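Q: what sequence does this backbone want?
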């Protein structure tokens, strides 16, 4: 079993299709689908990481609704999944929040659809994932996390490869595939 696992959906800093560092907008589908996947796999907290105040306001409008009795009655699964989401302005802030709880920095694990040297596959990271230390897995929106973020991480998970040359999964799909692979090797 994986202990003390956190997940971060990073909207900044990420690349756009021109390889420029940008900030992206949160989407309702990502918020709901990833939180439900996280809850299914026992992720302790799902951080939406975005520095834009306008995006924070959008998130808290969504959260305000999903904290109501009407939402609970409408869809208890989404209501429950929303409880593990926390909005954070930056990766550093999310890391500090985890450190406050555990008195140690989390092991930082990044993901990418690009190829890099020194990646680890889910089999090789099994022992790290089973440590009592907190772990924070970061997923990038748009065209992925910047190289700076990846270079600062402790581990980079091997990219998800399909059977064709095409390789641009939605982040929702990448999260689900990654968590399933990690939990299968840690059983």
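A:
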């Amino acid at each position: 079993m994986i202990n003390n696992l956190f997940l971060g959906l990073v909207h900044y800093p990420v690349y756009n299709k021109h390889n420029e560092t940008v900030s992206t907008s949160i989407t309702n589908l990502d918020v709901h689908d990833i939180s439900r996947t996280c809850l299914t796999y026992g992720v302790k907290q799902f951080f939406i990481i975005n520095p834009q105040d306008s995006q924070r306001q959008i998130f808290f409008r969504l959260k305000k609704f999903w904290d109501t009795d009407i939402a609970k009655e409408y869809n208890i699964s989404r209501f429950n999944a929303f409880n593990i989401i926390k909005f954070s302005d930056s990766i550093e802030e999310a890391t500090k929040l985890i450190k406050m709880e555990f008195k140690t920095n989390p092991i930082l694990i990044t993901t990418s659809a690009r190829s890099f040297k020194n990646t680890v596959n889910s089999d090789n990271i099994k022992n790290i994932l089973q440590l009592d230390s907190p772990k924070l897995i970061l997923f990038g929106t748009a065209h992925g996390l910047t190289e700076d973020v990846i270079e600062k991480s402790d581990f980079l998970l091997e990219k998800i490869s399909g059977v064709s040359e095409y390789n641009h999964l939605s982040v929702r799909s990448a999260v689900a595939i990654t968590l399933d692979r990690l939990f299968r090797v840690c059983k």
